[in-house]
Design goal:
Radius of gyration: 17 Å
CATH topology: Immunoglobulin-like
Number of domains: 1
Distance between the termini: 65 Å
Number of strands: 12
Strand order of the largest sheet: 6-7-4-10-11
Structural class: mainly beta
CATH architecture: Sandwich
Strand content: over 45%
Shape: globular
Number of helices: 1
Largest sheet: 5 strands, antiparallel
Order of helices and strands: HEEEEEEEEEEEE
Helix content: under 10%
């Protein structure tokens, strides 16, 4: 019985997994590696595409993934391929140049699946499909050495 309870405890977060971005915060003006974590498919269906919309002021280069092709547009990066079965998770990485001003960056992400799609684009509190958010913090002043 204890093993069943432990298994349920670890499985519970996966059932509510969203697409997230890591790190959650980074300094203004920095070049930052951003990792978009895909925790599940669409209602049990395998993921076949991830599209990340870049917020205004952000430029980025995607990291290639074996088995996936990349399409670049001025404000969008898309990976197509896989498929990534619902039972597994994966990460999609890009190198981004963040804006010089602090603030909240919302990355709207489309998740295409063999059956259906989910748009992780909502910015309202308690949403079931929240957009990944990166907090851009004030950059540290450079230290002046003599």
């Amino acid at each position: 019985m204890k093993a069943l309870w432990i298994a349920a405890l670890f499985a519970a977060p996966l059932a509510h997994a969203h697409i997230t971005v890591a790190p959650a915060a980074a300094p203004a003006g920095a070049y930052q590696t951003l990792v978009f974590k895909v925790g599940h498919g669409c209602a049990g269906s395998a993921t076949t595409g991830i599209t990340v919309q870049l917020p205004e002021g952000v430029t980025a280069k995607p990291m290639p993934k074996p088995g996936w092709t990349i399409t670049l547009a001025p404000r969008e990066i898309a990976w197509r391929g896989g498929p990534l079965p619902d039972a597994y998770y994966d990460e999609f990485t890009l190198q981004a140049r963040l804006p010089d001003a602090p603030g909240r960056l919302v990355f709207k992400v489309g998740q295409q699946c063999e059956k259906g799609r989910t748009d992780w684009a909502d910015t309202t509190p308690e949403s079931k499909t929240p957009a990944p958010v990166l907090e851009v913090t004030p950059s540290a002043s450079p230290l002046h050495h003599h």
